[in-house]
Amino acid sequence: MKILLIHGLSRTPLSLLSLEWYLQQKTGWKTEQFSYLAFSETFDRIVVRLRMRLQELANQGPYGIIAHSLGGLLTRAALGSDAIAKPHHIVMLGTPNQLPRLATQAWRIAPFRWWTGQCGFNLTDPAFFASLPGIESTYTIIAGTVGPRGIWSPFGDELNDGIVSLSETRLSAQDHIVKLPVMHSFMMNNSRVQKTVLKAFSGF
C-alpha cells in the first residue's frame, strides 16, 4: 500500500509531515506528498498534475489518499476520470465538500484573492461545487468541532473547526462523519486524528 498525502490551501507538505511520519512508523507503508502553490497555478492545472500522479500510483498497485481541506476537492476533481484506477480508501480532513460560508467573506480581501487565485475563487462558486464528481472509493471524513460558536460566530451554534462547519464537510446524506475536538489548520498533528486515519486504512 502506498499513501499519497495532499495538503490544504495556503499550506505546504510540511503541514503533513507529522502525520506522514506517524503512518510510516506504525505501518511501514510507503508515503509521498503532492505539492502545489495556489498563487502560481490554477486549480485546473493542479488537477492535471494530480491526475497524472494518481495514474502513475494506480499503475504501481494499491494506493490510498489522505487529503486536508482543499486537497479533498482536488482529489475529487482528479478522480473524475474513468481512466484512473480508484484508490482503496480516501481520508478527507476538514474538506469543504459543500460551499464554505467563510470563503465569500475571505474573497473580499485582496491579499486572499492574490494568494489563492482560482483555487480561492472556486470555494465561493456554487457552480464549481455542483460540477465536482462524487467519490467511488470508500472514504472517511474527519471534521473538527472546537471552532467558535454563539451569537458572534459566523457559524452560529453549529459545530465547526474554525474554518469549515460540520455540515460543510458532508459529501452525502449517508456520511458518518468522525467528529473530533480539533481546529482546521492543525488537525493533522492531533494524535486522535492520526489514530483515526490509521484505523480508516486498516484492512488494506
Mean pLDDT: 96
Tell me the Rg in angstroms.
Answer: 16 Å
Low-confidence stretches: none
Distance between the termini: 7 Å
Envelope shape: globular
**How many strand segments?**
6
Structural class: alpha/beta
- Helix segment tally: 7
Range of strand content: 15-25%
Care to describe what's here?
The protein is globular, with a radius of gyration of 16 Å. The chain is of the alpha/beta class. It has a single domain, classed as Rossmann fold (3-Layer(aba) Sandwich), CATH 3.40.50.1820. It has a six-stranded parallel beta sheet, with helices on both faces.
SSE blueprint:
Blueprint: E1 2-6, H1 17-27, E2 30-34, H2 43-60, E3 63-68, H3 70-78, E4 89-93, H4 101-107, H5 110-122, H6 126-131, E5 138-144, E6 178-180, H7 191-200
Parallel strand pairs: 1-2, 1-3, 3-4, 4-5, 5-6
Helix pairs in contact: 2-3, 4-5
